[in-house]
Amino acid sequence: MRILSGLQPSGRLHIGNFFGMMEPALKLQHEGDAYYFIADYHSLTSVHDGKALRGYVRELAVDFLACGLDPTKCVFFRQSDVPEHTELSWILSTVTPMGLLERCHSYKDKIANGISASHGLFAYPVLMAADILLYESDVVPVGRDQKQHVEVTRDIAIKMNETFGAGLFKLPNPRIQESTAVVPGLDGQKMSKSYDNTIPLFAPRPELKKLIAGIKTDSRAPGEAKSTEGSALFQIYQAFASAEETAAFAQDFANGIAWGDAKDRLFERIDFEIAPMRARYEWLMAHPQEVEVMLHAGAAKARAVATPFMARLRQAVGLRSLATATTRGPAKAAKAAAASFKQYREKDGQFYFKLVDAKGALLLQSLGLDSPQAAGKAIALLKAQGAGALAELQPLLAPFDAQHAPLLQALHALSTPAE
Ligand code: AMP
Ligand code: TRP
């Protein structure tokens, strides 16, 4: 299972972001092949201050790591280090109906909140679709307000498959953690930067205390029973607490806990949860170089997936090399197409593959590989990219003549879908 999610670097991570996306996503990191990234191309739709953006990227990278992202387990990267995202976005945009984007709530909300209506903001969901589809993602953990974007992604993938070939794109599924799908802010509305009602996750203790003191409550006096229903204070507590703790807190509400005491309890609960993460946050904020190294390594891993995917897609849509797009007669092409890959295991226990022509003459021979999957992957790459994959695969192959015409023709025929 491939899991993928991203966050825009656009300010301090708040408790709503944490429970809506960060925590559910990080819980999944050990359940599959996880890809998490910093969506900095996306932030350009609302942040036009280079210095500020750089600061936000650094902060968000640290947030991910402090919240428990394990960069040895997942592929953790910065979107703009993988330019394939924007290339794919362009190709997707050529089949995306305007109406599909016109219906997006997020676009309408952002304009209502004063972000200027640029083409980039309108096309935002197409770039998000590219993020998701590029890695053939199965599951996309997001907050509820991003669900529509994942649905748009599915629609775009369907359209691409109809247009350029079934099976080119995999349809992703959103995953929403319902219990914390909408975390309320200080005033009881959805916690959001645009409402200025957030609690930043890594707020220093005095700031945290002050913010919690400002949570809106009703005017019931100490000793009077209080309703948990509609209480932002209670819901924020619930997001952090276990079922037992929540039940005990509800009982305290029924028993008439004073609001001041309830706020102290919330502060202690949050601080208990955040203290260990805060230490890591502070260390990482002081060591940006270490963070940069991790992002760099992540980008290399991401590109190892993104580049072959785009090579395949470029072939499918017709962005192909003229040198290999021959106009040979059908007889000759058919003969080349009759070449095939054979996979087998030798007495040495290792796995091999070779490419042979119609008569069984050897065209390409692999070295011994650890697994049949490794052989399968190399074959898939050759079928996707033709001779373009030879350079990358050279370490796995017995010496060959890269100019050998029958080899090049066979690879070309195998990598070109029947017209
Ligand atoms: P945003 O800060 O609006 O860009 O959202 C980033 C991520 O956090 C998205 O997956 C949102 O769905 C999620 N999110 C933002 N605010 C909340 C909230 N108040 N409750 C739950 N999830 C949220
Ligand atoms: N649009 C998302 C948000 O605002 C961020 C994002 C960009 C994203 N690309 C993505 C989330 C791909 C999941 C998958 O939170």
Please give the structural blueprint:
Blueprint (H helix, E strand, L loop, with lengths): L1 E6 L7 H13 L5 E6 L1 H4 L6 H17 L8 E4 L5 H10 L4 H5 L2 H8 L6 H16 L4 E3 L5 H18 L8 E3 L29 H9 L18 H9 L2 H12 L4 H27 L2 H30 L12 H8 L2 E6 L5 E6 L5 E4 L6 H14 L4 H4 L11 H11 L4
Parallel strand pairs: 1-2, 2-3, 4-5
Antiparallel strand pairs: 6-7, 7-8
Helix pairs in contact: 3-12, 4-7, 4-13, 7-8, 9-12, 10-12, 14-17, 15-17
Bound molecules: adenosine monophosphate (AMP) and tryptophan (TRP).
The site of tryptophan has 14 residues, from strand 1 and helix 7.
Describe the structure in brief.
With 419 residues, the protein is mostly helical.
What does this structure look like?
The chain is mainly alpha-helical and 419 residues long. The protein has three domains: 206 residues, 3-Layer(aba) Sandwich (Rossmann fold); 72 residues, Tyrosyl-Transfer RNA Synthetase, CATH 1.10.240.10; 95 residues, Double Stranded RNA Binding Domain. Helix content is 51%, strand content 9%. It is built from 17 helices and eight strands. The strands form three sheets. It has a three-stranded parallel sheet. It has a three-stranded antiparallel sheet with strand order 6-7-8, covered by helices on one side. Strand 6 and strand 7 form a beta hairpin. The site of adenosine monophosphate has 18 residues, from helix 1.
